[in-house]
Amino acid sequence: MSYIAHTDTQREEMLRQCGVATVAELFSAIPESLTPLSFNIPDGKSEFEVMSFFEHLAQQNYVHLTNFVGGGFYDHFIPAAIDALASRSEFYTAYTPYQPELSQGTLQAIYEYQTAICRLTDLDVSNASVYDGGTALYEACQMAIHATGRRRVVIDGGVNPIYRKMLYSYTANLSIEFEEIAVSHGRSDREAVFETLDGSTAAVILQNPNFFGAVDDHSDIVKKCHEHGIIAIQSVYPIAMSVLKTPGEQGFDIATGEGQSLGIPLSFGGPYLGFMAARKELVRKMPGRMVARTVDTSGREGFVLSLQAREQHIRREKATSNICSNQALCALRAHMYMSLVGKEGLREVASLCVNKAHYARKRIAAIPGVAVMDKSPTFNEFTVRLPIDAGECVGRMVDHGIAAGFPLGRYYPGMENYLLVAVTEKRTKFEIGQLAETMERVVCQ
Predict the structure, then answer these.
(1) What is the pTM of this model?
(2) Residue 1 domain-assigned (yes or no)
(3) Is residue 277 part of a domain?
(4) Do residues 203 and 231 make contact, with C-beta atoms less than 8 angstroms apart?
């Protein structure tokens, strides 16, 4: 089966128009040392041979590991109905809705997604999503800078280090001053944060639960921020919001997060979904798109793109962002997940995570020489101090079929012996027992 649509006669005619006789002559100006190896293409294979080759190649990637790795991305159960529905051609092949009158189904799905995010965060408005959790946090930072006219941002050290790296990378060429506050016993250091708050500060960025798994109530920090006219931003884990105090309840101005845990597979790192919600006073500063419900002149209900403050729609210098394309299919999956699981279902998933993580903490705390950090309450992640290097421990446990967690020394110097362990509703009592028993053999040998 040929993958080239042109006939030999057509190719010869094109070469003749170019003034050469062969394809090799067409590219003769390129030195041989720079000639792409892709030109050395082997003879074609049948469809069966191609499928067999790639199936064999894919099998080399498959290693079954019981997953206890978190750090912002989690191995949650995804109902089969989500794959079935999201794979329908009218969803799977649809592009972003530039023509609202022809995209009512897509627009309604985005509208319902926005509604679900507002309910989850207890905030007034949501956009149609952005690329991922880190991008969402950057966009929230820019919202605060535009809203306050200030250029200084305070960020808690417990915010996901991947997000912080993205934030610093995106703003590397901008005149923004960042001040990072180290956490205290796993939670936000109130005294250190309060000392940094002044009239030049645009935003304070916090996370709940933070990267160490610690749960916090930031209401007191938010109150102090508002006394100085500072925008308070919180990055959140959406599953946890069903049982923890929400950003809206704590008084935050903006909430962001990674939506991967809402029905999106881990999939080697993407594509994922960044969600954003804010108070209605900041709606004009939000990036990307927002869908609204309205009625036409005949009284018929319809959905429209109500705000599109991006460079494709307005003058570039007035745009809120130029990296804010929405992840429509991922947002659809997130909405499907929240609809299928429901309010009580989300709470049940969260409760299972909490209870199973508590059991894992007890099992691991019983290992000689291992300490579980327990000065702060946790959701489904917790930090463990090992008697050996955490990276070495993880490597040895992979050989036993267990991905034991995330070595914190990778991002936090001095924490080489610390491991971040995550437990979701998918982990069984037997698997948690295997984790503890294998860890004991590895660290005590």
Answers:
(1) 0.86
(2) no
(3) yes
(4) yes
